[in-house]
Amino acid sequence: MLRIAVPNKGSLSGPAAEMLHEAGYQQRRESKELRIVDPVNDVEFFYLRPRDIAIYVASGQLDIGITGRDLLIDSDAYAEEILPLGFARSTFRFATKPGTVGDDLADLKGKTVATSYEGIVAKHLSDNGIDASVVHLDGAVETAIQLGVAQVIADVVETGTSLRNAGLEVVGEPIMKSEAVVIRRIGADAEEAAESKVQQFLRRLQGVLVARTYVMMDYDCRVEQLEKAVALTPGLESPTVSPLHNEGWVAVRAMVPAKEAQRIMDDLYDIGARAILTTAIHACRL
Ligand SMILES: Nc1ncnc2c1ncn2[C@@H]1O[C@H](COP(=O)(O)OP(=O)(O)OP(=O)(O)O)[C@@H](O)[C@H]1O
Ligand SMILES: O=P(O)(O)OC[C@H]1O[C@H](OP(=O)(O)OP(=O)(O)O)[C@H](O)[C@@H]1O
Ligand SMILES: [Mg+2]
Fold it and tell me: Which residues form the ATP phosphoribosyltransferase catalytic domain (predicted)?
């Protein structure tokens, strides 16, 4: 049975459960449940603190886990990212009170930096040869500056609202970009036993990602316009082209990126395509 770690709380928890549900896996009904078995899919889910997931996966007791890239790197656990999942996107940045620290990383020399991600920050400072102190706090680190615990913070930034509300602004370049990722123990793919089940799990999640980012597009066009139309909708392999009852016309079907669907529909219309439709994809295996 495949054993999978899933975040039990925080920003990752809801979207992770939603994605697993869309991929056809049974999920817990109550937020207090710590473990469930999905007998149909032969999978056991463990609901763990997001910060602990890389440690469990690195220990080899669990086959794979869903966590944040920033949490994986911060943990320094013996685990690696195998599939980015596109949700819980954020950047990890330094921030401070406007006018108190210069915009250069070197300006952090001698300062105290408060963060919940001590591993990422200490490594980033030492990689860049900056001698600064790091204070570990569990959360709500924005308040550390106001209360005099640090002059600088390093934290997750998504919209920037938390920083603005605390009267802070980012300094320097982002330390890293993060999103939810699937992780596994480094070198675990050499162990054949769970490999085919892991690959099946990844294919299911990839199917959800594709279904979320692509739509199916159908349209009719004149044979003379087919090459131009197909250039606009190349599909993943190649579009399906079928004859229409009316001679000189064909029906075309191809997957297109959802974000570009409206522009592609306009361009197809301009070259004479008609009956242009898009439909949602609910699941797929590429
Ligand atoms: N506002 C946000 N937008 C996007 N991702 C976020 C945000 N806040 C945290 N994350 C991501 O969530 C993960 C941290 O999860 P964790 O549950 O520890 O923190 P949280 O979501 O802030 O929850 P809490 O602090 O309530 O426990 C990290 O990968 C982080 O990048
Ligand atoms: O840029 P924003 O959109 O404001 O998002 C970033 C904030 O969200 C998270 O905090 P959370 O609310 O989880 O509180 P925490 O500090 O206790 O983790 C994170 O720690 C930042 O503070
Ligand atoms: Mg948080």
Answer: 49-207
Domains of the chain: 2-87+179-190 (3.40.190.10), 90-178 (3.40.190.10), 215-280 (3.30.70.120)
Give yes or no for residue 158 CB within 6 A of ligand 1.
yes
Shortest-distance Cα residue to atom 20 of ligand 2: 156
Dihedral of alpha carbons 120, 126, 131, 133, sign: positive
Answer yes or no: is pLDDT of 194 > 90: no
CA 51/CA 117 separation, integer angstroms: 10
How confident is the model over 42-88, as pLDDT tens digits? 999 999 999 999 999 999 999 999 999 999 999 999 999 999 999 99
Task: Name the more confident of 284 and 189.
Answer: 284
Protein residue closest via CA to atom 22 of ligand 1: 10
The whole model's pTM is what? 0.92
Q: How far are the Cα atoms of 63, 119, 182, 234 from residue 51, in angstroms, in the given order?
A: 17, 12, 14, 42
CB under 8 Å to 132, separation ≥6 — which residues? 108, 109, 110, 111, 112, 113, 125, 152
The ligand placed nearest to the CA atom of residue 10 is: 1
Please choose from 156, 158, 165, 169 the residue to mutate so as to test ligand 2's pocket, defined by most ligand atoms within 8 A of CB: 156
Q: What does the chain come to in residues?
A: 286
CA dihedral 245, 250, 255, 257 (to 10 degrees): -130
Q: What is the pLDDT of residue 192?
A: 66
What is the average pLDDT score of the chain? Answer: 96
Q: How far is the CA of 204 from the centre of ligand 3 (A)?
A: 28
Asked if residue 112 lies in contact with residue 135, where contact means CB atoms within 8 angstroms, the answer is: yes
The pLDDT assigned to 142 comes to: 95
- C-alpha 42 – ligand 3 centre gap (Å): 32
